[in-house]
UniProtKB/TrEMBL annotation:
Name of the protein in its database record: dTDP-4-dehydrorhamnose reductase
RmlD-like substrate binding domain span: 9-305
Protein family: Belongs to the dTDP-4-dehydrorhamnose reductase family.
UniProt key word Nucleotide-binding: no
Catalytic reactions of this protein: dTDP-beta-L-rhamnose + NADP(+) = dTDP-4-dehydro-beta-L-rhamnose + NADPH + H(+)
């Protein structure tokens, strides 16, 4: 960036659960400064978000060349494990090939890429995981994200990967997050006419608020803007371990419903999932980057308007 120019960020996938939180954080925190954020979406493109299909490589190249951003945040992905398992070609096209195109273009333009990845690159057998731990994904989603990380960093070693665990945050549909998606079953189970709701009590998760991740990403962008670029692999995670059974009990308490929940102590998902992928966040914490909101406070805020939430 030359003196007098604005620091330009391309936010790819700004319409998703995480992308919306990043857009909100950058708008409120950076609005007064000399930054410009250009958001993209595919299905949910609108007046705020440029339409960009990552499967159209020519369009991706044209968009980036015209914008010439200083930084590119990639929050677009296929992140549903069952969809990736059933359609590995789609997972690869979005999570690997599209990222390769962005990486090559970014390198040519001198733009810094910050790409979001997942704790599912690990098998969950030996937590906590540091950024240099050996990945061993158990499912097609984790494998595609790992392949994307590798393609990005091979093409552009200055780029950065931010791995995250289970996310939750402001939502437009219960199923946007595996945290809020538990709510309808929790509420149904409180009706005496309905059977108890089974909830996974096998896997330990670290639910992480999208607004906190957005603050982390703002911190990383600010580092880059002042010439202290963060490269390679980084992790960010909430620090409250809980199973989905624990999450469901907390949601029931917030909603004040007498839920009938049954703990399931063996995995039942069709797609294999890791047991405990606790990510060590020390690398970013050492740089003074990070924010954690307590789960009970955050979920109470998110469910405050229940049941006036758009139905799925
Ligand atoms: N959600 C989690 O619990 C979780 C956990 C760990 C890591 N992550 C990672 O965090 C990142 C964000 O996830 P998320 O939960 O925010 O995902 P999401 O809510 O499913 O949003 C996906 C985003 O990708 C965009 N997109 C999908 N296909 C596209 C295409 N062909 N071209 C352009 N854009 C496309 C969507 O745009 P439209 O909707 O406008 O089409 C949307 O903006 C992903 O990298 C994911 O792997 C998520």
């Amino acid at each position: 960036m030359r003196a007098g120019e604005r620091f330009t960020v391309a936010l790819i996938g700004a319409s998703g659960l995480l992308g919306r939180a990043i857009a909100g954080e950058l708008a409120s925190a950076l609005g007064a400064k000399d930054w410009r954020v250009v958001q993209t979406a595919r299905g949910r493109a609108d007046a705020r978000r440029v339409k960009l299909d990552l499967l159209d490589h020519d369009a991706v190249r044209a968009f980036l060349r015209e914008l010439a951003p200083d930084a590119i945040v990639v929050a677009a992905a296929e992140r549903r494990p069952d969809v990736c398992e059933n359609d590995p070609a789609l997972a690869r096209a979005l999570n690997v090939d599209a990222l390769s195109v962005i990486a090559a273009e970014a390198r040519m333009l001198g733009a810094w890429v910050l790409s979001i990845s997942t704790d599912y690159v690990f098998d969950g057998a030996a937590p906590p995981y540091f950024p240099d731990a050996t990945p061993a994904p158990l499912n097609a989603y984790g494998q595609s994200k790992l392949d994307g990380e590798r393609a990005l960093l091979a093409s552009d070693p200055a780029a950065c990967v931010l791995r995250l665990p289970l996310l939750y945050g402001p939502f437009t549909d219960w199923n946007e997050s595996a945290v809020t998606s538990l709510t309808p079953a929790i509420v149904r189970s409180a009706d005496p006419a309905n059977p108890p709701a089974p909830m996974d009590a096998w896997a330990t998760r670290y639910p992480t608020l999208t607004c906190d991740v957005a603050a982390v990403i703002r911190g990383m962008l600010e580092h880059h803007a002042k010439g202290a670029t963060i490269s390679g692999i980084t992790h960010w995670s909430g620090d409250e371990p809980m199973t989905k059974f624990d999450i469901a009990r907390r949601i029931a308490r917030v909603l004040n419903v007498d839920a009938k929940l049954v703990a399931q102590h063996t995995p039942t998902d069709a797609t294999p999932r890791p047991r405990d992928c606790h990510l060590d966040s020390g690398r970013l914490e050492t740089l003074g980057i990070g924010r954690r909101t307590a789960f009970d406070i955050a979920i109470a805020g998110l469910l405050a308007n229940y049941p006036d939430v758009p139905d799925q």
